[in-house]
Amino acid sequence: MKKNWFWIGPLLIAAIVAVSFTFRHTEANEVAYEIALAPKNYILKEYGIPVMKFSVDRNLITKDAYLGKILAKYKVPGNIIDSLLRASTHVFDVRKMKAGQPYTAFVNRDSASSLAYLVYEVNDVEYVVFNLKDSVSVKREMHEVVVKERTVSGLIHSNLWQSLDDSGIDPLISNDLSEVYAWTIDFFGLQVGDKYKMIIEEKFVEGKYVGYGAIKGAYFNHMGKMYYAIPFKQDSISEFFDKDGQSLRKNFLKAPLRYSRISSGFTSARMHPILKKFMPHFGVDYSAPMGTPVVAIADGTVIHAEYTGAAGHYIKIQHGSAYMTGYMHLSKYESGIRPGTHVRQGDVIGYVGSTGRSTGPHLDFRVWLNNQPINPLQIDATPVEPVKAEHMPRFIQERDVLLDLLNNTSSDYQEVAAGF
């Protein structure tokens, strides 16, 4: 009997310790689990939906997918699908769902595994929520976008696009920068060694870069001359001015199109590529991809828009009493362009082609002053309205702050290999 009690004592003590440890360990795990889980139930949401309440299925739109087919995959009844399609009519055109775009299905944790929400990402910022949980509804929402300002700079070795890309800057911003300087700098004539500096906005969603915003100021050193671009708003209109308050916008654009190179210049004697003899070429040839939009370089009235022999599809525009511009070898005209049509500076009037006597897609661009041909690259463009006198004190104040940022904020001009 004493022998049995001898073993029972230690066993009982061991059992008590084990139970106590197990209880404490389990209790600790439960507390840790509750601490970890509670914030998720309370905070963790996607698209405003509490994620932990659902099974989440993430997919990409396939080439043959459409909303009805996706919903049917989750066994959504036909009448509910019809209701969703009707509810989306004025919110989002479901026919525009693109292959490769992500969508997320939130499935109820019930025996039927019924679909509660379907969210389609329109782009990096916008999304559409198809709600099946309560009453059927569709809404279009936006992620929170964080905007940051960044000072960037670079050197030109081949072209602006390549320089931006080599410097780790979104090269698409070259479009906006070329528009800022459209009246001042011929971007087809950039030189190796030209340099630029900009203050730009960059947009982020949950830390992911989703695009750029406005150009908040810039300078461009082109062929040794500094061109500043200072944004300023007067009379509810915002545009760019130079350091002295003169508008960068002028009565003539520097060029009638983007994304091209000058393949032939203004000359009185050029070997014609087809006729094989020296002939005058009183224009500038811009080599560009077929279909590149061509714009009017100034306000004016179309006086010619038809097929004309060697010039192919040809548009001629009268600008006031002194100037005319011509646009040759077009593939087609923009809708509504005909003799008598009034166009504004920057309006698309046609598209690059190779009609008429042409060896490939290009625009032959010409300018006349008092009916005499002049070099389009030397056209005398004058600024439009400057900063008004009553706004000048505010302009100077804003200008000086911006110039301090542009001139004193350190940034290296990145030396990169030429990208010819």
Keywords summarizing the entry:
420 residues; alpha+beta; Nuclear Transport Factor 2, Chain: A; Glucose Permease (Domain IIA); 3 domains; 10-stranded antiparallel sheet; 5-stranded antiparallel sheet; 6 helices; 24 strands
Give me a quick take on this structure.
The protein has helices at 2-42, 67-73, 78-87, 160-166, 173-180, 392-408; strands spanning 45-46, 49-50, 54-60, 102-108, 115-121, 126-131, 137-142, 146-155, 195-205, 208-222, 225-234, 237-241, 261-264, 267-271, 278-281, 284-287, 293-295, 300-307, 313-319, 323-333, 342-343, 348-352, 362-369, 372-374. The protein has 420 residues and is α+β, with helices and mostly antiparallel strands.
